[in-house]
């Protein structure tokens, strides 16, 4: 199934400069900025500059350069913030929601980086 990308989503508008953001790092293919409703002391959003709806869309259709840049940029931000366990930090969680069941709110692929406090279990149990 092909993905239909909505060029009016909020992240597309941020990338076009129509909506301001608190940029942490920008590269040729990736933008990292602070979430406007942070859930942790460090809550960042990592987005590709290309028009991808969710993780599997990005993984299947992005160029190798885009994929490498996205992940290396995320790693660089974690190191710069001092949250990477490999650099002595206390760690972080990455989250990427895809589709309705995962409650994806913005139809542009994005990865949350959450850090700065203990995060608890990954999912709460629903009986």
UniProtKB/TrEMBL annotation:
The active site is at 110 (tele-amp-histidine intermediate). Residues 10-124 form the HIT domain. GO terms for molecular function: catalytic activity. A motif (Histidine triad motif) lies at residues 108-112. It comes from the Bacteria. This is Histidine triad (HIT) family protein. It comes from Cereibacter azotoformans.
């Amino acid at each position: 199934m092909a993905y239909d990308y909505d060029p009016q989503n909020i992240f597309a508008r941020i990338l076009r400069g129509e909506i301001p953001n608190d940029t942490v790092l920008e590269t040729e293919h990736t933008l990292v900025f602070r979430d406007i409703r942070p859930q942790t002391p460090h809550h960042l959003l990592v987005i590709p500059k290309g028009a991808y709806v969710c993780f599997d869309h990005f993984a299947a259709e992005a160029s190798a350069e885009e994929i490498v840049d996205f992940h290396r940029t995320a790693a660089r931000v974690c190191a710069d913030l001092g949250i990477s366990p490999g650099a002595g930090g206390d760690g972080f969680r990455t989250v990427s929601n895809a589709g309705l069941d995962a409650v994806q709110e913005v139809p542009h692929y994005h990865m949350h980086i959450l850090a700065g406090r203990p995060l608890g279990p990954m999912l709460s149990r629903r009986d």
